[in-house]
Specification:
The protein is mainly α. The chain has one domain. Strands 1-2 form a two-stranded antiparallel ribbon. The two termini are about 45 Å apart.
């Protein structure tokens, strides 16, 4: 995450060292904008400009956290993300394991094959 934050800060025009960025993104993700604000202002940048950048960064961060929650799990009715648990399965006999797998739908063409025609001369 520190690399993404460092890239965002550089795109906004701030020159902050990587160790300082790494230290600012440690801990609670909700506190990252405040931590970055104090680090950037400490370097002498305009407070209003930094506040605007951190507001934009906070929106991006919230969207990224929500996207990660959706890809890593599903949300329940309360909007709280439930993470999917990956269950490790030890396979001793591969043939027996394969019988437990579900078979999906077989692939089908989007258009019927009858719509295509055969050409005797190749097109190059």
């Amino acid at each position: 995450m520190a690399d993404n934050v460092r890239l965002f800060i550089a795109n906004e025009g701030y020159d902050i060292s990587p160790p300082e960025v790494a230290e600012a993104v440690k801990g609670d993700p909700n506190l990252i904008p405040q931590n970055l604000y104090s680090v950037i202002v400490k370097h002498g940048y305009d407070k209003d400009r930094v506040a605007a950048s951190m507001a934009k960064g906070a929106e991006i961060l919230k969207a990224q956290i929500a996207a990660n929650a959706v890809t890593n799990g599903v949300t329940n009715g309360d909007g709280v993300a439930k993470t999917r648990v990956v269950k490790e399965v030890k396979v001793d006999v591969i043939h027996k394991f394969r019988t437990t797998l579900k078979v999906g739908e077989k692939p089908a063409p989007i258009q019927p094959l009858e719509t295509f025609y055969e050409s005797h001369s190749p097109r190059l």
